[in-house]
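Regression test case RT-17, inverse folding.

Input:
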């Protein structure tokens, strides 16, 4: 039972640690399913980055004398399952790439919320070194989200638009 802010912090660190490990396991599947070389590279590089983020979480837990392993993150399980469903339902190509970006951005937004919360708690507790470590990860998650947006807007979404039937409504103003 969690009664103190330290209990909440430990549960939050464990949840985030679980989430990062789940996405680390899922990223190779996302990379394999993507057809866009740019998107494949983004998933590969984010996997490498996620390994460093897991190490940072382990370091913060050591600094605070907390155990990183805990319950499985149910939210990340749902997000990964949603991505799996998209990979099963959609044909390989730009529409699947667009769906993979959407799924990955949901993950990034979840992680940004988690790291923002962790940083705020750590700062309130005077744990500035731990907060600084996780602030690096928060910045990386934001940067990844922005990269995915650029890939979607500049490459994947325009390619996916080519799959529209000729008589589909256009994106004009109403």
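Golden output:
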């Amino acid at each position: 039972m969690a009664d103190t802010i330290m209990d909440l912090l430990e549960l939050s660190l464990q949840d985030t640690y679980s989430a990062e490990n789940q996405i680390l396991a899922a990223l190779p599947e996302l990379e394999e399913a993507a057809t866009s070389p740019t998107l494949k590279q983004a998933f590969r590089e984010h996997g490498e980055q996620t390994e460093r983020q897991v190490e940072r979480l382990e370091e913060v837990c050591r600094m605070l004398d907390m155990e990183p392993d805990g319950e499985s993150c149910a939210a990340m399980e749902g997000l990964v399952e949603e991505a799996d469903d998209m990979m099963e339902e959609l044909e390989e190509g730009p529409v699947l790439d667009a769906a993979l970006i959407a799924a990955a951005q949901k993950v990034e937004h979840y992680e940004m919320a988690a790291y923002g919360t962790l940083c705020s708690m750590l700062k309130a507790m005077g744990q500035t070194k731990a907060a600084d470590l996780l602030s690096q990860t928060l910045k990386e998650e934001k940067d990844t989200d922005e990269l995915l947006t650029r890939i979607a807007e500049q490459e994947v979404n325009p390619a996916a638009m080519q799959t529209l039937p000729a008589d589909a409504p256009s994106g004009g103003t109403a």
